[in-house]
Write a structure and sequence with these properties.
4 helices, about 70 residues, about 75% helix
């Protein structure tokens, strides 16, 4: 497939309302997973953090990030 064909297909997808809706749903699902994971990480004990090889500082740093930031 040529580069021109890929560009045209990409533009079609970006104008397609269904594709936009699907991308939005995927983004929201990813944000929810991040928020839940960070909440769970914040609630781990020091022993559990040691078991997975993280320090309390690393866990606090990661769990303090907003859900939209990877």
């Amino acid at each position: 497939m040529s580069t021109t064909t890929q560009i045209i297909q990409t533009k079609r997808i970006s104008r397609n309302p269904t594709a936009r809706w699907i991308r939005l749903k995927r983004a929201i699902a990813e944000w929810r997973i991040r928020a839940r994971s960070r909440h769970e990480l914040a609630n781990l004990s020091d022993r559990q953090l040691r078991d997975i090889g993280l320090s309390r500082y690393s866990a606090n740093f990661e769990s303090s990030k907003p859900f939209w930031r990877a």
